[in-house]
Amino acid sequence: MTSRTDPAVAAEPDRASAPESVLWHHAAFCRLGLPVAPFSEPWRRDGVDAALRLAPGTAGETLPDGPGLRLLLAFLCDAALRAGSPTVALGADAAALAARLGLVETAAAPLAEQVERMVAARISVSVDDGPELSVLDARSRPRGGGWPSSVKLNTRFLASLTEHAVPLDRGILRALSASAEAMDAHAWTREALARAGTGATVTAPWPDLAERFGTPGMDAAHFREAFESALRLVFEADLSIELAVDDEGVSVRHAQSEAVSASEPAPVAAPAQLPLPSPVPVPVPVQAVEPPPQEDRADHAGPRQREGRHREDRQREERSREDRRPRREEAEAGQGPIDQIMDDMIRIRSHLTGLPQVVWLRRGHGEENILVGVTPGTRLDTDRLTILMVEPIVMQVSGGLGQSDFERVSAWVMANRDLIDEFWEGSILSAEEVHSRVRKAPGPSWR
Q: What is the pTM of this model?
């Protein structure tokens, strides 16, 4: 028998003192999705490594569901683990609890309803072939109804929580709280990576994911569409992970790019003008689809005419470089702003793009070929610079991107075409607008 003072139910010191940004949750709630819609019948989900059960306390009662249930369970697990106590105070009323959860005042009423459903229901979990454990103590439901000032977890569940605690991100979970599916996806990625260890890549096939998170009756195509949408929300919110999606399933790993602090940007070398392509580019299509026919006057020009145009381009480029030399010298001396629009160029780093490379955009000044630069680091090293032309399809003009990296960068380019075009045309005037509009690349590749 487990006593009330059994050290097995005490939170570990490092967990108790973990930063407030960490939200401890039970692995069972991370490995399997909870109900996304109300049920009044017993609900269950089984996986190879966990199981969940929800049943009404009284026939006909509605079970808890949606983002509210997820926020409440995560809050209870975190508070109990940090305090080393099964009893968790909820506050004077729903408004007080909503404030503790970081929710707006209008969320108090629906949160109160979820609390009422939760304490009335029988919720149990099992993990790794262990016993089925009730989450809440049966005495949590207040006699005569009303708001419960506190909730008590089952002591055996708290012991299991101590053994199977998963660190989620409190801010990310709150940011995803409009989507129950995205909250489940975030919990899954964090638990899978925590279990796999540093440097590992976790891959889950679509049938396994559907078993864990799918809605009964949903076909495979609709589940994949819904789960990809949830993953996209997670990827936009969580800068610590990379995702890959293909017809086989989903892979997740820790971000491989250099960690970048938005408040402490790394030093940057003076931007140089992206060179214009002089050779005729060889297209590397993103997909095996024939591009639409394009009328290109250069295709009908003779060798002398083409050489004349290239010479004019080079002369115009040299004049542009001379005009901008004083500003480059300022930047080299450390007097110029970091990651601002300088020499009509701007650097967009990995924490904004989701790419391991750094992207460089520049003004076009009336030139027809829209170009994007890519470097492996934050310095504009022309020896390691890759130039992409974005029309009529994304193609590699110079540089050495491998096929997988090219596909990733191409997906980013296609997701940001409006931004690239407007910056090239000069209609975007501030770095802040660029940074606020950058989108991470969707698509079936690491992103």
A: 0.59
What's the pLDDT band for 355 if we cut at 50, 70, 90?
A: confident
Rounded distance, CA 158 to CA 118, Å? 17
Q: How far apart are CA 445 and CA 447, in angstroms?
A: 6
CA distances from 236 to 145, 370, 406, 413, 438 (A): 41, 26, 21, 16, 11
391: nearest Cα among 273, 274, 285, 278: 285
Q: Tens of pLDDT along 180-236?
A: 999 999 999 999 999 998 888 999 999 999 999 998 788 999 999 899 889 988 988
Please give the residue that has the higher pLDDT: either 283 or 90: 90
Answer yes or no: are the C-beta atoms of 445 and 407 closer than 8 Å.
yes
Which residue type occupies 382? Answer: T
Q: Which of 214, 225, 230 is nearest to 176 (CA)?
A: 230
Amino acid at 66: G
Q: In whole angstroms, give the CA distance from residue 410 to residue 441.
A: 9
Average pLDDT on 105-115 reads 91
Q: Identify the CA nearest to 26 among candidates 63, 85, 70.
A: 70
Tally the C-alpha atoms within 13 A of residue 429's C-alpha that lie toward its C-beta.
0
| pLDDT tens figures, 399-437 | 878 887 888 888 889 889 899 999 999 999 898 899 889
pLDDT of residue 403: 80
Show the tokens assigned to 180. Answer: 């129950």
CA distance 358 to 353: 8
